[in-house]
Amino acid sequence: MKKAENIIVGISIGDLNGIGSEVILKTFEDNRMLELCTPVIFANVKILSFIKKQLNLTAQLHGIDKIEQIVIGKINVLNIWREGVDINFGTNDETVGKYAIKSFTAATKALKENEIDVLVTAPINKYNIQSEEFKFPGHTDYLNQELDGNALMFMIQDNLRVGLLTDHVPVNEVAKHLNEKLIIQKIETIKKSLIQDFGINKPRIAVLALNPHAGDNGVIGKEDDELLKPTIKKLFEKGTLVFGPYAADGFFGSNQYEKYDAVIATYHDQGLIPFKTLSFGNGVNYTAGLSKIRTSPDHGTAYEIAGNGIADYNSFKEAVYAAIDIYNSRNEYKEISSNPLKTKEKQL
């Protein structure tokens, strides 16, 4: 297994007019982080030096032109472009969006080619990244195309883990997207992730209902009785410890979520509102289900505070920690899976 500081954490720069650069630089100002991993920021060292100066930060940057020039224990900045970029903090700028995607696609390529071990993405603006070359709602959809597996948005913070059956889908279309195949795929993806990425041998998974009061026996919608319940029952009978559907309104307030290793919400805000209420500033967005590891902070570009030097970097730091932990957990799982005797030793 690699030494901790040799775990190469690739970082896409995100929207240069947002708080991404600030939270990245603040995270690695603490030299103890460089004992855990070696960062490689996909950007331009002159641009980052300019931002560092603007924000009065002290992180020491090491510019490189090829991935082979990485220096262990330094904050490496891989020059993905040479030209200057106009930085106007707090501004939605299509040109800046293009550089965010240039960074992200280069980092994804490095991840695919095993030049970096994990990827941590700084926030992008989903509107200004759109172009003829990049027509994806965000990071997750592009990674799902480029990497093996089935991507699933998995929000994590300590023992609170929330996955989604549907993510960036308009609320009035959620029911149309739900079907047995999708539900089974998402639940199985979360089950596999809990086992290999978090070391939970027999995970317990709760599913939230689509409708208020889980449909009240069909009075407020039939999807829970006709789709979710039978699908959950089918999976449970095959050995997956999945339960529900539970009425979503009181599930988190009553601390019922604490009985489960993960909770699956049927749509974006049903899962993310309670998650961010309970963990804001410490939560991590993890793309589960793929052959490679990608995490990101649980916030956006925060244009309203960009350039003021007041951004909280904790969520980004937690995203780095999570990526390293999952990387190590996966390696341990592979080792145990290839050597059944170690599994027995662990159980004894």
TrEMBL record:
Protein keywords: Metal-binding, NAD, Oxidoreductase
This protein's encoding gene: pdxA
NCBIfam families named in the record: pdxA (TIGR00557)
Alphabetized Pfam families for the sequence: PdxA
Protein EC: 1.1.1.262
InterPro entries (alphabetical): PdxA_fam (IPR005255)
An annotated Gene Ontology molecular function: metal ion binding
Protein name: 4-hydroxythreonine-4-phosphate dehydrogenase PdxA
